[in-house]
Every structure is written in structure tokens, then in C-alpha cells.
Specification:
Layout (H helix, E strand, L loop, with lengths): L10 H19 L5 H43 L5
Length: about 80
């Protein structure tokens, strides 16, 4: 695992996700993977998919942010004194 994760989870979030991973593996594959393998799987998922998901969120936010900042800049111009 890399030293700096792109996606950081709280202890509560991590516990919840690990429980869901273990349950998923048990229900779908009839495999009880336990705590350590579930943690390794979560780390793999975060390292493999995390950057792609993060980048998609940033790309999806860009048009919204552009619109919001444009409105803010237009509002700022209304404060000019002539």
C-alpha cells in the first residue's frame, strides 16, 4: 500500500466497508475472507480504482464550479463604483 491514500476513510467508514466486503464475499462466493484479507482487498480497490473515481468527480465538478465562479465574478462587478 502506498504511504498516502488518495481516498481517506474514517475508522467508522473503513469498518463499515470491510464488513460489507466480507458479507459480499460470503453471499456471492460462499467465502469467508476474514479481516486481514478484507483489508488487503479494500486497499487494492482504493489504490486501483480510487484515482479514477477521484478524477471523475473532479471532472464532473468542473462545469458546476465554472458556472458558480462565473456568477460570483459577475456579482463582484456589480459592486464597482462608476
Amino acid at each position: 500500500m502506498s504511504a498516502e491514500r488518495i481516498i481517506k476513510l474514517s475508522d467508522t467508514e473503513e469498518t463499515l466497508i470491510l464488513d460489507k466486503l466480507r458479507l459480499y464475499m460470503l453471499e456471492e462466493f460462499d467465502v469467508d475472507i476474514g479481516n486481514l484479507p478484507a483489508r488487503f482487498l479494500l486497499d487494492f480497490i482504493i489504490e486501483s480504482l480510487g484515482p479514477h473515481i477521484y478524477n471523475r468527480v473532479v471532472e464532473d465538478m468542473e462545469p458546476w464550479l465554472y458556472e458558480r465562479f462565473t456568477v460570483i465574478l459577475e456579482d463582484m462587478h456589480s459592486f464597482k463604483k462608476y
